[in-house]
Amino acid sequence: MDHALPMPAAPGLPGVDRRTLVGLVLTGAAGAALRDGRLMRPFDEGPQMILDSTRRSLTTLGQTGYDQLGPRKVAIALRAAERAMAPALTDPGLRPAQMRDAKHLYAQLLTMSANADSDTGQAVEAIRTAEMASSLALEVGDAQTAGHAQVIVAGALSAGGAHRRAVEVARRARSYAGSTPAGVMALLAEADAASLLGQAHTVLDTVTAAEEAHALLADEMWGQPGYSFGTYHPALLKTFGAISLATVGLHAEAGPRFEEAAAAAGPAAGLRVVIWLWQARSALEAGDAGSAHRLAGLAVAQAESRPAAWVAEGVRDLSADAGGAFVDLVERVDGWGFTPPV
Asked: What is the phi/psi pair of residue 9, to 5°?
């Protein structure tokens, strides 16, 4: 990975970048650095209070934030949570169990931050942050979060055109996460990368494997269609499996899955945007430009309250494939964080 670009400063810690902070936490040196006065001044709130508050913030953002806020606002909220958490990470008085809890929580926070970076088109930053999250999670034996973070790495690599590398990373994610919800996500990430390589048989096999793995999860691991570390909703499973199948032209396999996803999604606005965009793609490939425009219009209208780079990219691609016929929609998504390649 290229780390030549400057790392972002660790929120709340002037002069200290995030990678340095993660390194200190991994080596157990953060408390010593604090005692030397190199990180920050002492704080008034107890570390457990800070950890509990951060955990509540992440739960709220996962349950409702991704559906009600744009990814930029989610990223801002996560940075605020990271600033608030910094004192707990650098407290020299943390007991071993508290430090383990802090590392686990910080790994989840960084994973969510990486996902928000990916949503806003910052693939390089998403990869960097997710790799740090994965390292922290492995340090405390949290294989599921480590796998979840590697899924984000795979997605960012794939978005950047490194599809074969993305397949490798997705398989690594699966090896970490095993038979957890993140393991299902890893199989879908592999299917996504394989679809962009045009490997139809691999896509069908991997999507089927993801569905079989999901069926073996306990019912409480299905959860809701929000952002979660311990659950994976059937609507997400069907949506992302269908996308990979549609990408390789397996529309007969993808269509019913899109319908199942739409039925299961309920009021999940973000997921409906994904479904509508891909149904628009299928309609356009079937020669029905009118239906494609209508579906894409529904997606744009739904996404206007939480604009994201991937929505803009999808609309631009649709318009290009329709000979520029969706220019009105392209104008509406202009400035949503996606700049088409020159």
From this structure: -65, 145
Instruction: Provide the residue count of the chain.
Output: 342
The whole-number pLDDT of residue 24 equals 43
Residue 214, both tokens? 């999901």
- What pLDDT shows up at residue 63? 65
The structure tokens 């457990």 sit at 48
pLDDT digits (tens, 9 = 90+) for 139-181: 999 999 999 999 999 999 998 899 999 999 999 999 999 999 9
CA dihedral 304, 309, 314, 320 (to 10 degrees): 100
